[in-house]
# Entry
Amino acid sequence: QVQLQESGPGLVKPSETLSLTCTVSGGSVSSYYWTWIRQPAGKGLEWIGRIYTSGSTNYNPSLKSRVTMSVDRSTNQFSLKLSSMTAADTAVYYCARWSSYYFDPWGQGTLVTVSS
Amino acid sequence: DIQMTQSPSSLSASVGDRVTITCRASQSIGSYLNWYQRKPGKAPKLLIYAASSFQSGVPSRFTGSGSGTDFTLTISSLQPEDFATYYCQQSYSTPLTFGPGTKVDIK
# Structure
């Protein structure tokens, strides 16, 4: 079965760019949409955006100016870059597969803290 | 954006209880509604998709219903492993949005 695992720095300085990677095992990134979702402490889940294997993307308008997603079929990974990080971006970040109607499966999530 | 609300925000229940969680969309979303379960430190898990379709492997005590703007998730007989937070999510239009969650804990 397909499993996803997020990786990246747990601490990012204000104004820097966050880079996260999601490794897909048990399946290929060469189909489906792949997505990022986050949850700030005490707040709700927020969809960041999605990328198709072709590289086609859809981003949440609330974050669009700061988000870049990419897919690497050679490593079976997809990635998120979020620029100009602030304390408001402190959150648990999840990667997930989007199968046109729902998110499944999800990664366990990785906590990213923005602090100097 | 389509706003999703859930009620209650939390509830306390006992093993064996019947539990119902409500989700409401700010506009009609047909049956484009999914339910997820999340436990601390674990990956969120899809329970129900398209309002009432079971995801493979999900116990039959979980049922979903509704269409349009009003939806419910029912757990017919709460089990110890069901204590978790439950989220609804609309897949009708982007940006995809979630409800704020309902935390189910032990009475």
